[in-house]
């Protein structure tokens, strides 16, 4: 298959998905006076995840392409679950992904306007106060094949409704005692249209409006109206809102709007194997201690993948590659990783690190009474990027190699180091293993080898070949470090798909902590958060806080290409 295209997709794309097509048509017909305004409306009840990246790239990206506006709107209508810390975190995550959220707007800023519009609908006979409790309302809603039952309070007069609604606002009633409902049709085939709730009573402190309100608008009552207040033209959301669209339109068609009536269009959610994209479930992972926090590198949150070392450019390219469709599906996580790998291959510096060290002593290497006699070898920083140049790597009498690169009694297909066998040390020399030193328990603890000074150029002058090149670190110069390797957070490719709790398939072994790793000295120059390729091992991101701690970003093998071949 061809390499994934990681060219910067925010500016690229003369794309032809159905939403862009729709906007071009609107512009051609002058529907919104040629204006394009979108919004990205997260609820500040958790941090953003990879699924949100699709919505962000869509909302902000489309606005950019059409010289329009995209606002970040906090859809903060649920006082119990929302928090200011999420507001700041979400803004930070959007910037990291490469978009400028500007000054955010808040649904809670429209509470007064929404209230006035609710009174307007009451006055028109289009909304009523219902004294039924939540259970009765739910029981009387009916089902897909059975009609709903009208509330006994449905035909209250306008004056009584206004009076009760004002008293709801004034705090005269307890939580759940009354709701305001739209008066639509209890027999409507679309369940969303069966007199949906507009306001519920919640005597709860809101992180922005404090105790000013004790009635809070529902999503459906707040969303379209917020769009209209801001001047949104194209309200883009995920497919599960498709059945809400008639309600979205119903409200807007009945209100004295300040401008054009916005229009909702739905696209498919981004679903990825082995990943969950529900803030509620992600919070549970944090609260139940399955991960260290929202920014744990195993988390599919934007702050998690940032710590893991995913380049924002790769995420944008991935999301654009998946594209906008109207059919829900799931893409393989290996495809996401393939985009990450392709981008890192282009930009990441190469370094040598040994995760499971085995000592090699070069018995014929000059030693002045100690092991510190050394020379500098030149190594290429990134074969994909000439401008990254070269670095010096110290080579000396005692080296670390990977334990796995040696076998005392190798099977046929093992071509690396073994007794009597010669291999190449990358950017070093050919070495031959002569003696295997063991401890009392029989474990291999050291190898005695000789090196061939004539192989400095990476080839033997007599033309003899070696079958393997391995990496190494000079023992006297090594930096001690720690590495975290990661497996899938969920063993099930579709966590929760059978209706079971997705957390049932949390992988208890998703993290392997490797202490005692050995890094070459040039690792000291790596900045917090920077990703390097450990030669032959994979890509690893420097922790943003702890020095010499690295998180495995992604391996070197393109599993996605293999999956494609199988298909
Ligand atoms: P969650 O259940 O994780 O809270 P949500 O949809 O309720 O998800 P919001 O913060 O309300 O999260 O969503 C903000 C926007 O992001 C919405 O427009 C929503 O449709 C979109 N979005 C959320 N998840 C995805 C996803 N997996 N793929 C694409 N868009 C998504
Ligand atoms: Mg939500």
Structure, explained:
By secondary structure, this protein is α/β, with parallel strands linked by helices. It is 26% helix and 23% strand. It has helices at residues 18-29, 50-65, 84-97, 111-123, 134-139, 158-170, 219-230, 245-253, 279-287, 302-308, 312-322, 333-347, 559-566; strands spanning 37-40, 69-74, 105-106, 127-130, 179-182, 197-201, 215-217, 234-238, 263-267, 270-272, 329-331, 349-351, 353-354, 357-362, 374-380, 390-396, 398-402, 422-425, 430-438, 444-452, 469-470, 472-474, 479-486, 511-519, 531-534, 538-542, 549-554. It has a seven-stranded mixed β-sheet, with helices on one face. Strands 21-18-19-20-14-17-22 form a seven-stranded mixed β-sheet, with no helix packed on it. It has a four-stranded antiparallel β-sheet with strand order 4-5-6-7. α7 (219-230) packs across α8 and α11 packs across α12 (333-347). It is elongated. Adenosine-5'-triphosphate is lined by residues 41-43, 51-52, 54-55, 75, 237-238, 269-270, 277-280.
Q: How would you briefly describe this protein structure?
A:
With 567 residues, the chain is of the alpha/beta class.
Keywords:
alpha/beta, binds adenosine-5'-triphosphate
